[in-house]
Amino acid sequence: MLSRLPRVSFGTQVLIGLVLGVALGLVARSMGATADDPNWLSETLSIIGSSFVTLLRAIVPPLVFLAIVSSIANLREVTGAARLAWNTLLWFAITALISVGIGMVVGWVVDPARGAGVTAADAAAPGRAGSWLDFLTGIIPANVLGLSAKAGEEGAVSLSFNVLQILVVAIAVGIAVLKVGKGAEPFLAFTRSALTVVQKVLWWIILLAPLATVGLLGNAVVSYGWDTIGSLGRFTAAIYIGLALVLFVLYPVLLRVNGLSIKQFFTGAWPAIQLAFVSRSSIGTLPVTQAVTERNLGVPRAYSSFAVPLGATTKMDGCAAIYPAIAAIFVAQFFGVDLGVTDYLLIAFVSVIGSAATAGVTGATVMLTLTLSTLGLPLEGVGLLLAVDPILDMGRTATNVAGQALVPTIVAKRQGILDQEAYDASRRGEPWREDVEAAADEQREPVPAGV
After folding, report:
1. For 335-347, how does the pLDDT look when each residue is reduced to its tens digit (9 = 90+)?
2. Alpha-carbon gap, residue 42 to 49, rounded angstroms
3. Nearest CA to 428 among 286, 257, 264?
4. CATH match of 10-428 with 3.40.30
């Protein structure tokens, strides 16, 4: 009986989750819930959303390590591995440079500081600032797992991981596997088997995405709403205009120039872009980004396992290009500082290079402090923008993740290793065909056509 019921596609489930999230968030706000004074409904939404992101972040370290070690071994089968790496970095720089140019133009046209409702009393220096030495300190692994610990309240200890350090450790182990040769085959076989298991666990987590969307978006409505935009409406509009131009103009142009379908890219990358928007975490979205890049967009696993994690730490067109460009113009206008041609060239330089320099402590605020300090602008200007930062972070992160999927796809296409059949395949409303078909085979039930 149940098998005869029509299946609701994954994409439809996510859309239902979006609607329910907004509705429940509005209900919670109508019941008096705020970020500082939650009620039972807002607390439930928060727990559901944060638990999902925590699960995703938990699987990132083993996924990145195992995937990169396996991919380095597999790169022997990919012609021109060094050329792939160089082209990836080159396209990271090209898209970042164009994006920061878009950000500066939008800043000039929109004039984001005009009519701002903030005052000098709102100015405050951030607790953490970016530094050009952060890249060197961030890239050196503190331990083999790339973990760091911080003491909390009542003796609690919280652990966090640095993806860039895990990347470095995994690359070293992968190269060692190649050098050892035949003696490392048992280790490599174990790594590949473990990766398969981790990817299966990831699939189970992804199935929770529609429910997580309800919690993440509902909590966002409760915590931020849209009333905080009022004092910085012009600045907020400028940021989202810049992000929209990158996401819906620049990226489609690059896809078309490289002979790729715009529709297929966005339908293929949508699960990662949507999750990035509601979760506000590129690292938390990393497993999904890597999965859709491989299975929907047709990028070989041997290459995507390297390019996507690298992009998650250094490819940030939203946080490292659009946002710091417009924010720097805002801060300069607010404090009455005239920016010259040299200053705008510095903004472009920091946006292209700075994301790597702050890879150990990534974040839009860190990128902004690096930009402001390079230009000699007051770091206290960061405090002026904190009220709307969570709202902006949704769009920034979605743009970041879209770029992290875009560049490997373009590079794979230009190098002739893209699986065009997988790229052009019908999505059928599912996150990716391969796992859906595998799940259907396990249940011995065919996936109905059109699902």
Report:
1. 888 888 998 998 8
2. 11
3. 264
4. no
